[in-house]
Queue: 3 jobs
Job 1
Amino acid sequence: MTRRTRPIPGRLHSPAAEVWGRRLAHVARVLGREELDLPARPSHAHLVEALERTIDVTDRAEVWLALAALSGVLPRDEEVVGTTRRGALDGAGALWRQVEAMSMPSTLAQEVTVLTEVTLADVNHTVATDLATGIQRVARLTVQRWLRDSDIVPVAWTVDFAALRTLTVAEHGRLLDDGDQPTRGPAGVVVPWRSRILVPELAAEHGRSHRLLALARWSGCSTGVIGFDCVPFTSAETTAEGFAAVFYGNLAAVRHFDRVAAISDAAAVEYEGWRRMLGAVGMTGPQIAAVPLPEEAPKPDDDALDDAARRFCIPGLPLVLVVGSHEPRKNHLAVLHAAEQAWRSGEQFSLTFVGGNSWASEAFAAELAELQSAGRPVESVSRLPDRLLWAAYRLARFTVFPSLNEGFGLPVAESLAAATPVLTSNYGSMAEIGAAGGTYLVDPRDDDAVAAAFGELLRDDELVRRLQDEALERPSRTWDTYASELWEFLTSPRTEENTE
């Protein structure tokens, strides 16, 4: 059947047509097509005819660009595929009807800029929260260094996850911890085309992952992501209800990415297992490599140490510190059990938990309250300035991190960087970190083993000194090193290695 353009009857000029006309002219320039000679107030017929001359409606990449740039909304994969199929029969009319269907007043009111040969960093959640632990800490500290050393544009998403946009001044300040830094790049909605997009955080939101999937397939951009872990895939019972399904949406997008930089060898093994499964649907998936997180804990000044000592330390009692969110996977009930066993045996110490973003923590909260009512020196702090956290690491006799599953275990690395011994798990990424010394490894599923190790670290000064010495001898790995190695891996051209 001959391809034809089906005009949209009964539609003449509208204010939106002026916006579409400007955007279509922009797309034509990006694609290197002939300059469009549109009237100042184009009719829909003018636009459809210009679209016919500018876009190959059977080319999914060009259709993706046209839908994104004209509507101001990044299309989903099914919208791109469906439009090209209809375009094979109906020509540019099919594409134009999809543009109209996707366009919204909010996106028509904004400037849309197509960015080519630019590196973008998607930091949507990082700039929306003040949380400074786990994924947010990794993303923030990494992108800060990329901004310092390279030319990148940090971006976030519109509230409905319909489009990428540049950051507000407040968001840029939150990212850099410096509100005086200007935002780079153009204002408004941005459409990456034959550029590079890096995702240094978990992009698990439904709309976000669906649009990233299509972007990875059709935008011509090289793509890279930090692979934190596959816990919702390998240990779904330890995650919030419904999160596993959301995470699968993330994996559906990541399977079309070029590279995944896992934060540990253990996380890389999980991602490699997932990648091998993609062969069942005829896909090779991304290249995967471990780029381990750093072990760095900034040295606190005397004022921070004094403030932290007044806040957390009880004179004459050693401090035991637990850093991490309160969720079943972190195994904090086992820590409370170990602490109570030690108190009952006559040990004297204080116990402090630092971590927010809790879920399914009712049992932990109830047990904590019961111990506090019994007069035990135990507390939980949801938010803590970095200066006090770094000081608390150094004031603690030891830290405890008996997680059931981790992609890395950043509190383990941070404690060791502060030369403070860690009681942690004897498998996975935590054992991987602990191999260089400074850790007491136990089976976190064995409450008696955790309690025995907890008591031994309280009683045995020689053991603690030996672990401190081991921690001091560990090789140094900084955030600067991590950010540089991560950038090198994610921005290098893809090779045939690991694509079998």
Job 2
Amino acid sequence: MNLEFMFGSKKQVALVTGASRGIGRACALELARLGARVVVNYRQSEEQAYGVVEEIKKMGSEAVAIQADVAQKTECQKLVTEAIKQYQKIDILVNNAALHGEQEITELDDALWQKLITNNLESIYWLSVFVGLKMREAGSGVIVNLSSIAADFPRPANIIYATTKGAIRTLTRGLAVALAPQVRVNAVSPGRIETDMSPMSDEVKRQMVQESNLRKRIGQPEDIAKIVAFLASDESDWINGQTIRVDGGSSVLAKV
């Protein structure tokens, strides 16, 4: 399987949201490593975003950083317009940007609900519509959305977050139908992943996470990025409207 040939030879362009750190950063670097030109979207972390761009350029690939708050419809449109102005097209869209928020059910308020819905769900809808229609006009394209295992195993304090991640799966199927046959849309559902936003410095916590999956290790952003790259490639052409769990087998043990 030669993914580099898939991305590099066609000079494909990938737009990755929330790409300044964590899973988004890993996806941007992996797609660039495989030959794609990458649009690194960020909301606030400008220094980190430009750091990702520099890493990509050192690989010999092309990249540009574009600031946009994808929780806002107008910002989504601006991001797409600027990305196309830079590279004339978008072949791959990775909807990664998201926020996490926790409150007990007795404390839930409209503000948290609206914040997570707009950031985690509406952003994916609008970007997928704006980019997906252009992909359909061009005759091809791939969208990969980031869901979460939290949708399968919600905890009392993360009901809203889990709801948004579950809705992403339904949205993924709907978009796959609406944009077919030219555009494929799939989702990845990560398990517990160690990132700067979710550090596992406590040894007791690390041990617990390791024991909660079949691989007996802690998942890394690169584990997710590799599957995202596969779904973005022609090697996964027969996969559409699906959500792929990437959790080291923790969902089998149901200890997440």
Job 3
Amino acid sequence: MKFRVMGFLMLAALLVVSGCIENAPNGQNSTQAQGTVVIGTKLFQESYITAHMVSLLLEEEGYETEVKENLGGTLVNYEALKKGDIHSYVEYTGTIYSQILKKPPLEEWDSAVVYNESEHGMLNSDGIAIAASLGFENAYAIAIDRNWAEANGISKISDLAPYASDLVMGTDPEFATREDGLPQLARVYGFTFKSYNSMAPGIMYEAFKNKEVDAISAYTTDTRNDLYGLKVLEDDRNALPPYDAVVLVSGTFAQENPQALKALAKLDGRIDQETMRRLNAEYDMGGREARDIAHDFLANESLIPV
């Protein structure tokens, strides 16, 4: 990605300022100094899988790691990263821009602008750096029953306007109240739903399957959209920001562990959207462990030994 160039320059500058590009004195490497590297996750399968990718790459460099699955939502993970309780987790640029940095919506969303604003904002305010941009976007989307959508000619969010006041919306714990979620949809599209229920992502999808809700705040890389007969609606008024997946690391960790950053940079641009959907399906439909999925992907990409 073109906007990664500035990111690498910023990360390099961070390391140069700290003086950590050089080897540690007396031959001691940064692995020994760091101890266990803790990686946080959010509450869904993709977060587990990508966290284990981070973990496995660092283990190849000699680090001991711990993945804290289901640590919490966005702000729980980000605050833990700021405080040093974790050293890394995978986040999404639109979430950084809107929820963490509290920046106002752009008149026209642009992935590169959101990325650069997010990277500069985190580094300047909290010393948080982006170690890799994974190559895929997992965007929020509004999804409804596919058969009902086809019967009523609904393909875009704006098509919901005549029906929204009769629909119960299921959301993940954040989407209903965060500024880039339901409030933004209401501003741009001019309608609200009859009611909404917030729940963990897995429960949200099950609620739709069990006909407890009529629409959900779906994730575009989630294979349950197909499995449960969901129609993902086009955001025809460009209300929602881009959500490119990025690996975040704390500034202290970045400064003390240049070798770890080199390892994590191997993930840059490695995963496209269809690949991430396939990996998520292995978890949701294949019943595989997140670490095993991550291991096989990295091995197939020749990033770690088979």
